[in-house]
Amino acid sequence: MTEAAAISRNEAVPGAGGAILLAFAGADGVPAEWRLLSGGAVIGKGDDLTELPEQRPWVRVVLAVPGSDVAMHWLDLDGDPTPAQAAAAARLRLAGEIAGPIEQMHVAAGRRENGLTAIALVPTARMEAWLDAARAMALEPDLVIPAPLLLLAPGEGLVRFAGLAPAADYRGVAQAFSIEDELAGLLTGGAKVAEIGEDLRESGFGPALAAPAVNLRQGLFAKRRERAVDRTSLRRLFLLGLILLLVSLAIEIAAIVRTSQAADRIEAEANELRAAIGSAPATIGGFGRVAGALFDAVRDTPNVELTRIVYQPDGTLRASLLADSQATLDGLRARIETRGVQVSGGLPTTVGGRAAADLTMRAR
Fold this sequence. Notes:
Helix content: 25-40%
Number of helices: 9
CATH architecture of the largest domain: 2-Layer Sandwich
Order of helices and strands: HEEEEEHEEHEEEEHEHHHHEEHEEE
CATH class of the largest domain: Alpha Beta
Strand order of the largest sheet: 3-2-1-4-8
Oligomer: single chain
Number of domains: 3
Radius of gyration: 46 Å
Largest sheet: 5 strands, mixed
CATH topology of the largest domain: Nucleotidyltransferase, domain 5
Strand content: 25-35%
């Protein structure tokens, strides 16, 4: 064809912008036959992928795999499950209905037809082989679809496309399979079957790929999305990394400054205390006399409680006391003064229903 010849000569194909490459895996799993679609129409075709140009004028790749290698089921599932949930439910339901272990099968769930959810089963090893063969041809499929699902389902009955494969493809509403002619009657069940040719089959590729009944590239075989990083994104990432580095550096500097300031403050307080002790040794000795007078007075005065005592470097002793009455506090103050200690403060207050006073004392 003209389009295929143009592509094989690496020439531009009119209308190929945003095109879809549809590659067909053969019985050996290696993709060879292909179609190039744009706007839902076939604009190029060939039997050998090596014909394709290096620039590859398409944006999506679809790999069609033999229907004889994929078991299609249509299940009535409750609710509106996600594909992952539908696949998990299908595994449980179909585990006893298939010949091999369900653990060795890749299960994919698709959309509903006539109230039934499309479920595709294929051996995991076969799925891996298809993808490896495609990658060997420098193709990374976006969709992997059983070939029978490329046919459009008629309103009633089935359509059949024979092609060159030993097994023909059949498609109906909530039905899709590939089978040899001598066994077809077991699955068609006497339903009306309409034969279609290549042209009618190709006319349905666009709608079939726009809303595929099931895509095998899900779960373990889901295609990883690769995000292109342009210069603007790289610049932003660099600036973000630089900002994070500067913020981390600022935090470290602030921590060092706070530690240094705390050390200076502690050293200053220590120097003040050393100076106080060195300049007033007599004051230290006076503390014992003032404290002794206070403790003796508290011991000799009933119903008095000492709640707080603070010694100041200048020799002053501050004490907070509670008593059953103000008269008791006055008696306490008098006993302290008789022991040669000067007492000030003591304005009457009440705390929790008890008389309270803060006394300041120093040796005379």
